[in-house]
Specification:
single chain, alpha/beta, eight-stranded parallel beta barrel, 21 helices, 14 strands, disordered N terminus
Length: about 600
């Protein structure tokens, strides 16, 4: 295990002071010197944290207490994210994402190689002129042509990489390790000549020979790079391997040199590996919004922040504007044509939704019982689901209290049983639950269990029999009242939301048209019902579908109809598609003829 030399933090400050002194002379040089100071403080703090852990970081109880190692975030949404399968950011997208990342507080923003296109150069130059607090980096090959173009764009640093594993050296550039080291030295010195920050990364670190790796890292470290890069390019590394490799690299370079860790999520270890890398001495973690990137992507920004939040909530809250995360993820999801998964870290639709009765009861008493993250810190609300067959009576009682209703526990229990039974038959809204509770509160407040609280040593058999009969009678009343409340609310159930019924006809199985049609309504904010589906016996026969849509907002309904109409028109030439809208009277007649009665 690598242990940092004593006084490494002091050494870092001395190194930074020297760097600042040698680059003075202009406002730009002074700014870079200040940024170098911040960088070396982060690197030295990480090295000191590793040293402290090596000396023994356990509590008196013998349990190892998790602590948050210092770190900086290099967000690569505008570089790695651009390599995601469906991502095609526009210039305005890049500017908006860069500004929002900066407002969130990320330390670095990495963008694509300027050699990618003429537009890549323009976007780099434009974002470099925005005056962001975050450092702007560009990611280039270890080629002189790449870095010559990079230094002209106004970026703060250049992230250089070159393959070092046997398989990539064979199929990528065909050069030996000594040649890689020579090329790296030439390119690094060129960038340093412009006073820019430099990182050199060994691509495919975890499939590279350890001896080769340490040789290259030591060589570029001697040249004075700000960071070396350790890259799990194919997502193969385990946490144990990450710890081992990072520890060896940390021991082979100066304590003031940063270690940037980049890991892919092919085997699902991104966030765990990022944390372990920091614990072993890494200083910088590459992330992207929603984890988008080549193949299965890289460490997700939100998931990584959530992991670090659990280690030091106040530090993460103070450094990063967490409330912007959900907004930024929605934007990136739309721009890259993906949907945010239901179980996404922090911002997924079910992340803070509690359903089971036991869970709901505990969370209502103390949210920390089942939550290690306070959703409010991320600008998100928790939800306690009430109207389902797993509902617990404690959740119902809590809801009644929120509504200011005085209903006994026994009445609540009876109503909960009825609601659970109804939930087995159809979806129940929270408004319906509220209406059921309100109807119960209008009647007399009774409690069958109170009749059974009796001192048997002093009461007669006759009294005990009478109490038992009274309890039974009140219990029957409680159940009857609950049945009546549920029935009344069900009968009064009228959906007043904007609605529309669409009839689509044509060769719906050509080009999987029906599937695409259903994808639109499933992904829309509308609720829907397939009222009728007539399928031709052969693909060339005409098929038809009738859908009814409901939405909370008329605009959502209109937008969904427009999307369906666009799909139909696009397929009309070869699938003979048409779409028409049914009036509600015709829809009612159709439903009566094709849908089963309740």
């Amino acid at each position: 295990m690598f242990a940092a030399a004593p006084g490494s933090a002091v050494a870092a400050l001395r190194f930074a002071s020297t760097a600042a002194a040698t680059t003075m002379g202009s406002a730009a040089a002074a700014t870079r010197a200040h940024r170098s100071l911040l960088h070396t403080q982060t690197a030295a703090a990480a090295a000191a944290a590793v040293a402290a852990a090596a000396e023994g970081g356990s509590s008196g109880s013998g349990m190892v207490m998790p602590t948050m190692p210092p770190f900086a975030i290099i967000d690569s949404t505008l570089r790695e994210g651009e390599q995601f399968a469906t991502c095609e950011f526009s210039t305005q997208d890049r500017i908006f994402i860069a500004k929002t990342l900066d407002k969130m507080g990320v330390d670095y923003i990495e963008m694509v190689n300027p050699m990618a296109s003429a537009q890549a150069v323009k976007d780099l130059e434009r974002i470099a002129r925005l005056g962001l607090s975050a450092k702007l980096l560009t990611h280039t090959r270890c080629h002189m042509s790449d870095v010559k173009r990079a230094v002209e764009t106004g970026v703060d640093g250049v992230n250089i990489y070159m393959a070092t594993s046997g398989i990539l050296r064979q199929h990528s550039h065909g050069k030996g390790i000594d040649a890689v080291a020579e090329m790296a030295a030439e390119v690094i010195k060129y960038v340093q000549g412009y006073g820019l920050e430099v990182r050199f990364s060994c691509e495919d670190t975890f499939r590279s020979d350890p001896t080769d790796l340490l040789k290259i890292y030591a060589a570029v470290d001697a040249l004075g790079v700000q960071r070396v890069g350790v890259a799990d390019t194919v997502g193969i590394a385990t946490p144990q391997q990450v710890h081992s490799v990072i520890s060896q690299v940390r021991a082979a370079i100066k304590p003031t040199t940063g270690i940037e860790f980049h890991t892919h999520n092919d085997s699902g270890c991104c966030i765990a590996n990022a944390l372990v890398a920091l614990e072993a001495g890494a200083t910088h973690i590459d992330t992207s919004v929603l984890g988008i990137g080549e193949r299965n992507g890289i460490t997700p920004l939100g998931g990584f922040l959530a992991r670090m939040y659990t280690l030091d909530r106040e530090h993460v809250k103070s450094k990063y504007n967490l409330e912007l995360l959900a907004f930024l993820e929605r934007y990136v999801a739309q721009a890259s044509e993906v949907h945010i998964p239901f179980n996404n870290y922090v911002t997924g639709s079910s992340a803070f939704t509690h359903k089971a009765g036991v869970h709901s009861k505990a969370v209502m008493a103390n949210p920390a019982a089942y939550e290690v993250i306070n959703p409010g810190d991320f600008g998100i609300e928790r939800r306690i689901q009430l109207a389902h067959r797993l509902t617990g009576w404690n959740a119902m009682q809590q809801r009644a209290k929120q509504l200011g209703l005085d209903i006994s526990d026994d009445q609540i229990k009876a109503a909960t049983t009825m609601i659970k039974d109804l939930a087995d038959e159809r979806t129940i809204s929270v408004d319906e639950v509220d209406a059921i509770l309100a109807r119960l509160a209008q009647g007399p407040r009774v409690s069958s269990s109170t009749f059974m609280v009796m001192d048997t040593s002093t009461s007669s058999e006759e009294m005990r029999t009478a109490a038992s009969m009274a309890a039974k009678a009140v219990s029957e009343y409680e159940r009857a009242a609950a049945v009546a409340a549920v029935k009344a609310v069900s009968e009064a159930r009228v959906d007043t939301r904007p609605t529309s019924a669409l009839s689509v006809q044509g060769h719906l199985f050509d080009k999987a048209l029906l599937n695409r049609l259903l994808d639109i309504v499933v992904d829309s904010p509308c609720d829907f019902q397939v009222v009728q589906l007539n399928v031709g016996e052969k693909n060339e026969y005409t098929s038809s579908a009738v859908l009814q849509l409901w939405a909370e907002k008329a605009a959502d309904l209109s937008h969904t109809k427009e999307m369906i109409d666009s799909l139909v028109k696009a397929n009309a030439p070869f699938a003979e598609c048409t779409m028409s809208e049914l009036d509600l009277d015709s829809l009612k007649e159709l439903k009566a003829s094709v849908l089963p009665t309740a």
